[in-house]
Design brief:
Layout (H helix, E strand, L loop, with lengths): L7 H42 L1 E2 L5 E4 L6 H8 L5 E2 L5 H11 L2 E9 L4 E8 L2 E9 L2 E8 L4 E3 H4 L7 E7 L6 H10 L7 E6 L4 E6 L3 E7 L4 H19 L6 E3 L7 E3 L4 H8 L2
Parallel strand pairs: 2-5, 6-9, 9-10, 12-13
Antiparallel strand pairs: 1-3, 4-5, 6-7, 7-8, 10-11, 11-12, 13-14
Length: 272
């Protein structure tokens, strides 16, 4: 039997199906070739392009005290270092604890490859002293009450207030110290000393009010400072030029004032 010839329309459809299959195969090959090229290029960039080869690719911005060498030393970076292998958040946490800075932001830049470190320097606002196992240590504190060693404070020492001294600094007193430093301007600006006693009592030395006992550095400290601000405004007129010797604000609702005796009172105490 002879084969039945295909209709012209069926032959045309068969050729179109074959052309579509060939076109899909060509597209698949193009995709595979491009994928291989992209993979090879990406691998090459990761291995060769996005690599830190030295400290000059560590860019430090915003600090007048910290350079790239200090950042490299603090993070213990070694070179060559794959850029994408670095973790900005982890690096920022390390730098915040190791350097005299208030804020740290770390980012990876690809073109050209570099590590960008943005810093805000801590500023010393007062001289400070603390007790250590080796004895008394001198240093500074910033506005948040953080301790700054002599080495950390060298770049900012000139800006530290020479009229303010913090004695008895301890890490557990930092929140209380930060609150007093924040309120200092509202307290007349004449506080020359902030002192923490071994029993946790907090004392201020004021030129106008004398020695001020603020009691323990606890949740009542904010209320005591509020009362002290009020006394700064009211007392000068009431004591009529007599120099205050002390104020005890351990109980902020019942302040105790230490006034020198008047001449009449002094004579009465001497009478038999």
């Amino acid at each position: 039997m002879s084969a039945t010839p295909l209709q012209p329309g069926s032959e045309r459809r068969r050729q179109l199906r074959q052309q579509r299959r060939q076109e899909r195969l060509r597209n698949l090959w193009r995709f595979l070739v491009l994928l291989a090229l992209a993979g090879g290029l990406g691998y090459g960039l990761l291995r060769q392009g996005w690599v830190l080869t030295g400290p000059d690719q560590v860019e430090v911005v915003g600090s007048q005290q910290v350079g790239s060498d200090q950042v490299v030393q603090a993070v213990r970076l070694t070179f060559p270092q794959p850029l994408l292998g670095l973790h900005p958040k982890r690096i920022a946490d390390v730098l915040a604890g190791a350097l005299p800075v208030e804020q740290v932001r770390v980012s990876r830049l690809m073109a050209p490859p570099r590590l960008r470190v943005e810093l805000v320097d801590r500023q010393a606002v007062a001289r400070a002293q603390r007790r250590t196992a080796k004895g008394s240590e001198q240093g500074y504190v910033d506005r948040f009450g953080h301790w700054m060693s002599i080495g950390q404070g060298q770049g900012a020492a000139a800006k530290a207030s020479s009229g303010l001294l913090v004695l008895g600094w301890q890490a557990r007193y930092r929140p209380a110290l930060a609150l007093v430093l924040e309120q200092r301007g509202r307290l007349g600006g004449d506080i020359s000393q902030i002192r923490f006693e071994p029993d946790s009592s907090l004392w201020l030395q004021s030129k106008r009010l004398g020695k001020v006992r603020l009691g323990p550095a606890d949740a009542q400290l904010g209320r005591r400072l509020e009362v002290l601000r009020h006394l700064q405004q009211e007392l000068p007129a009431k004591v009529k030029g007599r120099q205050l010797q002390s104020i005890d604000l351990s109980d902020p609702e019942q302040p105790e004032l230490g006034l020198p005796a008047t001449p009449g009172q002094a004579a009465a105490t001497r009478e038999p």
